[in-house]
Amino acid sequence: MNIADLRKSYEKAELSESASHADPLQQFDQWLKEAISGELPEPNAMTLATVGSDLRPSTRVVLIKGYDERGVVWYTNFESRKGRELAGNPFAALQFHWVELERVVRIEGRVEKVSEAESDTYFHSRPLDSRIGAWASPQSQVIESRTVLVTNAAKYGAQFLLNPPRPPHWGGFRLVPDRWEFWQGRKSRLHDRLRYTQQADGGWLRERLAP
Fold first, then answer.
1. Domain annotation for the chain: domains and CATH numbers
2. Strand 170-184 versus strand 71-77 pairing type
3. How many CA atoms are closer than 13 Å to the CA of 85, on its beta-carbon side?
4. pLDDT on residue 154
């Protein structure tokens, strides 16, 4: 098989200015709900891109845990690579790819930490194993073997029993969007791309981009 010969014709839907929302958050809400109702695999998965002090970009997949007019939220270890990079450069990009719907959403903006109360509330809603895991994993650090994780999990499980507190190094980030892009695959590679850019008055400029 020659990978260069792999092709797909995108013909499921279209994205027009007249049928799209003037507010990108409403457009995102519609598309995400359609991905969820369509029972797509992990419709809440998004790629997070950050840039370190060495100007090298890095990406990883995280899960969206909330969104509203303030921005898009996910949770992680603040001492992980992404956490350290965001501490030094608080700008990032997110991307959702819903393959079955032939859709992509890209979001760019400044990142801030959510409140302590928000992080606490979400942390205590997680399954017990996940709460213990937040203590057990020194995320992004080199470890000798998986035994380190298993040993740490046993140690913190015995220490905290059924009520592990939220680790001080763990919590939520919120990306505050200033740019959105919605991509709908179309036939002959003439895809639909609508970009929303935030204006000085807080409103949004919607523009069509060539594919």
1. 12-124+169-208 (2.30.110.10), 127-165 (no CATH)
2. antiparallel
3. 20
4. 97
Q: CA-to-CA distance for 82 and 74, rounded, in angstroms?
A: 12
Rounded to an integer, what distance in angstroms lies between the CA atom of residue 122 and that of residue 102?
31
179 and 196 in contact (C-beta within 8 Å)?
Answer: yes
157: Cβ contacts below 8 Å, ≥ 6 apart: 132
CA distances from 17 to 20, 24, 132 (A): 5, 12, 47
CA–CA separation, 89 and 139 (whole Å): 19
CA distances to 69, 140, 203 from 93, in Å: 17, 20, 20
Catalytic residue (choose from 146, 189, 193, 208): 189
- The pLDDT tens digits of the residues spanning 131-189 come to 999 999 999 999 999 999 999 999 999 999 999 999 999 999 999 999 999 999 999 99
- The crossing angle, in degrees rounded to 10, of helices 146-160 and 128-136 is 120
Give the side-chain half-sphere CA count within 13 A for 105.
22
Query: What Rg value do the Cα atoms of the chain yield, rounded?
Result: 20
- What's CA 24's distance to the chain center, in Å? 16
State phi, psi for 82 to the nearest 5 degrees: -65, -35
Asked if 189 is an active-site residue, the reply is yes
CA dihedral 72, 209, 26, 78 (to 10 degrees): 0
